[in-house]
Amino acid sequence: MRTYLDFEKPIAEIEGKIADLQDVADDGETDGVRQEIEVLEGKAKSSLEDIYKKLTPWQKTQVARHGERPHCSDYIAQLITEFSPLSGDRAYADDAAIVGGPGRFRGEAVMIIGHEKGSDTESRLKHNFGMARPEGYRKAIRLMEMADKFGLPILTFVDTPGAYPGVGAEERGQAEAIARSTDCCLSLRVPVIATITGEGGSGGAIAIATANTAIMMEHSIYSVISPEGAASILWRDSARAEDAATAMKITAQDLKKLGVIDAIVAEPVGGAHRNPEAAIEAVGDVIAGALDELSELKPNEVRQARRDKFIKLGSAL
User: Fold this and answer.
1) Beta strands in 183-272, from DSSP E residues, in sequence order
2) Is the pLDDT of residue 10 over 80?
3) CA 123, 287, 257: angle at the middle one, nearest 5?
4) 155 Cβ partners below 8 Å, 6+ apart?
5) Residues 256 and 161 placed together within one structural domain of the fold
6) Are residues 127 and 26 in the same domain?
7) Which terminus of the chain has a smaller tally of CB atoms within 10 A, N or C?
8) Which CATH number characterizes residue 139's domain?
9) Residues 6+ apart with CB under 8 A from 84
10) How many CA atoms lie within 13 A of 162 on its CB side?
11) Is the pTM of this model over 0.85?
């Protein structure tokens, strides 16, 4: 069954009626039923378009967190061939919140690194809901250095509420691991293209999103802290998360205006979770265009362009 967000209740009611009528049609009572289904389908589509044209930043946050939204593993399955997952940081352990390895994107050899949230209870626990520990970022560093050695462009898929804040993670150097991963991104001589597919939360996101080209899905978010966290700090009231989401300018549209990101990928009506295949293919097209542009630069120019981009961004903001 499809999961509906709070603001989608009018659509849920219409699609519920459609499902009931389809059961009637399946029982053979088709007189006028098919016609009524078509009318309701048109109404549902129209309502969906109207609602998604006017989403608030908080509503976009809810869409970005939708459990049925495509995850890193889905992007890999559809866009990457010959993918070989690599595990471990060669220091402590493997972290399933970060997945990665070499593969081919439309025939070109690349390195894939991304957050994986999981799609059901078991896999979400396995991947720690996409919240990486230090060993996850050290694994990312290992893969980035490998890509740099062999001249492989790096594609990252960002979808995390933030790095894991547990005691064990802090004891093993969470902040240091994030900082070193960010620094590694800046030092690479190969193109890095980051796509924020859902949540881009805090340093846990920027650790693998310090890229030549930053892409965001239309209904994804990217922020220094979660709206709930910001509300707790600013107003000591996490219930004011909606106010924080608006104030922080966390949507793709706001961040494009500010120059934080480079491109926005349009999502199917109703969000990427309603048509994952189309959404993933659209992301692939934008990534392909970005790779073509960066392929014209020499290795040192790729690195310098990335550094210049972030220096310029810092001075502009």
Assistant:
1) 192-201, 213-217, 221-223, 263-265
2) yes
3) 100
4) 105, 110, 111, 112, 113, 193, 195, 287
5) yes
6) no
7) N
8) 3.90.226.10
9) 101, 102, 103
10) 16
11) yes
- Tell me if residue 3 falls in helix, strand or coil: coil
131 Ramachandran zone, left/alpha/beta (phi>0; psi -120 to 50): beta
Containing structural domain, residue 298: 62-316
- Per-residue model confidence as pLDDT tens digits over 185-219: 999 999 999 999 999 998 999 999 999 999 999 99
Domain total in the chain: 2
3-state DSSP call for residue 199? strand
The residues facing 102 across adjacent strands are 111
pLDDT in tens, 62-99: 999 999 999 999 999 999 999 999 999 999 999 999 99
Q: Choose among 1, 5, 135: nearest CA to 64.
A: 5
* Of 1, 68, 37, 107, residue with least CA distance to 267: 68
* Residue that is written with structure tokens 């991963």 in the block: 181
Same domain, 45 and 119: no
Sequence-ordered strand ranges (E) for 92-250:
98-105, 108-115, 154-160, 192-201, 213-217, 221-223
Pair (67, 43) in one structural domain:
no
Structure tokens that stand for 279 in this block: 């959404």
